[in-house]
Design brief:
3 domains; 11 helices
């Protein structure tokens, strides 16, 4: 029974992250879920202790450092389904700082050390914006907007991140730009791998003379048949 429970946890996370419509914002919460479950009630793993240890070691080796990257943490923070709820309270201050740094890349504060400050932020940045020198604003506004956003998502449940940012784009114009960039990254490459698999079934030895345009259209139609 214990083995079944352990494997079901990993099956759940695998199915959760391999969907075409799942954002990278769910990677960090799934990592915390597995880590917590494997550490919870260790005595229950009496007959599967080695399996539990191997899975835990593998999880930490493969993901513990990766999920600390800004891309994973900020995408979770910008997902209204999670906000700060997915993080330990000790991490909240540093996450707000990271979000403010990203906001500065879009609308830098007008001050002498602006260039040096931005260069230090860009070194660990995953998102680049062309209008980095436009629309100067006050840094105090960043703090108020961040706090307003986090307070809003902590008080209400928002099932659809896309609908949330569509409705609150004008209220949080800078943060919404970051949300579009970060939440647009998919959680895994599973959908791309499925696309190559479908393409392989279409472009067979019997259809090797299929033109490029026809081939592209056939793949597109197969991938989008539910919407056609």
């Amino acid at each position: 029974m214990a083995i079944k429970v352990v494997l079901e946890m990993f099956e759940f996370v695998t199915n959760e992250l391999q969907s075409n419509k799942v954002s990278i914002s769910r990677v960090y919460p799934c990592f915390i879920f597995l880590k917590t479950k494997l550490l919870l009630n260790i005595d229950n793993y009496k007959y599967t202790k080695q399996l539990r240890n191997d899975l835990y070691d593998s999880l930490m080796t493969r993901f513990s450092e990766i999920v600390k990257a800004d891309l994973f943490q900020l995408s979770t923070l910008l997902d209204p389904n999670f906000g700060l709820s997915a993080f330990d309270p000790s991490e909240h201050s540093s996450l707000k700082v990271k979000l403010k740094q990203q906001m500065l890349l879009i609308k830098p504060v007008e001050r002498k050390e602006k260039t040096e400050t931005l260069n230090s932020f860009i070194s660990s940045n995953y998102v680049l914006f062309e209008n980095v020198n436009e629309n100067i604003c006050e840094i105090d506004d960043f703090d108020s907007k961040i706090n307003s956003y986090l307070d809003l998502v902590s008080r209400k449940n928002f099932n659809n991140a896309l609908d949330f940012w569509r409705c609150h784009e004008k209220q949080f114009p800078i943060i919404s730009q970051l949300a579009k960039k970060f939440l647009g990254v998919q959680a895994s490459s599973a959908c791309v791998e499925r696309m190559f698999s479908i393409a392989g079934h279409i472009f067979t030895n019997k259809r090797r003379r299929t033109g490029v345009k026809l081939f592209e259209n056939l793949v597109f139609m197969k991938l989008n048949e539910n919407y056609l």
